[in-house]
Amino acid sequence: MNIVFNGHEHNYQRSLPLRALPNITSTPNPGAPQVEVDTVFDGVARTVPDGVLYFVEGAGGNRDFDDDFQNPRGNGSSIDQDDAATGTTTRTVTGVGTFDFLKGVRSFLDTSLTDDAMKAFTPNAGAGTKITARFKSKLFSFAHVVVDDNVLTLYQISEPLTDTSSATATTPLHSAETTIRQELGFPLGVGQASQFGA
Fold it and tell me: Residue 109: is it exposed, middle or buried by C-beta count within 10 angstroms (0-12/13-18/19+)?
């Protein structure tokens, strides 16, 4: 198996190709890798991943918990995990204390399957190699997958997360088409495809 699609979370995520290691533990153990990543795969020149790609394709709704947006498009104060976010956010964990949590790429899960938000309970959480290639929480997106002759093609259609839709009767995809190239980057884009040999 080369690819797994998941939903539920209201964001878009794509992992690097992952291979589970035999030493997986039932509780987080920072510094002890649980998975290995293929850092060479790019979906363009190298199209056969050495591991499984995991996608979260759930950005069809709103009320994200990880975009730090207020209602109606967000769910209030949170850690902004969008891969364009930078810096830190200060949050209080009831009964534990106040912490400066990392935002953006530095907040992602690592090969120990821990992330920076776990540091309130697990020292050194999230300090390892990151396993996520893309994380977008400030957009609405939908995917169309085509499998033909052992080649999977993923078409991605998205638009930025704003108070109102950019679509109109005369230009239903204009803003989305412009923005997807900037926010998700190739090889995923409107009218563009990312192909993965099986």
Answer: buried
